Amino acid sequence: MSKVFIIAEAGVNHNGDIKLAKKLIDVACIAGVDAVKFQTFKAINLVSKNAQKAEYQKKNMSDGDDSQFNMLKKLELDIDTHKELIAYCNSNKIMFLSTPFDHDSIELLNDLGLQIFKIPSGEITNLPYLRHIGKLNKKIILSTGMADMGEIEDALDVLVNAGTKKENITVLHANTMYPTPMEDVNLRAMITIGEAFDVAFGYSDHTLGIEVPIAAVAMGATCIEKHFTLDCTMDGPDHKASLEPDELKAMVKAIRNIELAMGSGIKKPSKSEMPNIQIARKSIVAKSGIKKGEILSEENLAIKRPANGINPMRWDEIVGTIASKDYEEDELI
Question: Per CATH, which fold does 269-333 belong to?
Fold first, then answer.
């Protein structure tokens, strides 16, 4: 099994503060993820001025302002901030990723040299956007929250027809609710996506806790994305449904353990258990004293540990033969 690509989704949890953004990068490095991801957008291109916040955003923010535009305007990262964060990621040997939400942002990230483009769930039905990213012929990670199989198929067709190779696309099963109720996770849909479209698949998680992404890895996910924050109690739209630093660390450790545990799929004794074969298995032994020339029978034979004698699977061929020597009780035949 190849290494699972783990994305720590900082998103907008930097609250518009570059110092906070760098602290998030530090946390991602300590946790051992492969990439830390932000969001690139111009509020003016993303939402109309009268668009309302989602219910979970209203609930998670204390400012009493229901405008999506005003919320997002404060969370924009300009080009200089992007450059600074990319340089900071490079110096910390972690991949910088960002999700573009509009055409200007796609161009900005392309100009900055990003090799992987993450398409968020909300853009899966945005044909001009998909075509723009598809033309770049980069690696693509496509989230599929709120989508059905037909919409996923259409999005993949647009990306491939625009010029992206299918083998460069990873499709993430996702649920766009923060937090996602367990009964709505539907992890098996991840397998359905992988098999139906013959693509690499993974999971973008919005549940509370870490068990679902770990289960996704055990089911074959090659990419995991999870929101994280410095502190769940901070003011902002996504903090409450994000992992805190210790939880992110625990998730990465568990995923790396599951990767090791998945193994080769070949069933044979492992290196660590080989010494225990003789101790745990058994051999055919004398149940009581046996004289030379006596017939070996079910009455005078037994099966006991250790396993350095005749394998008990040969019981039927040993029973009925003649003892070639004297045996004491418990002596190996």
Answer: Type Iii Antifreeze Protein Isoform Hplc 12 (3.90.1210)
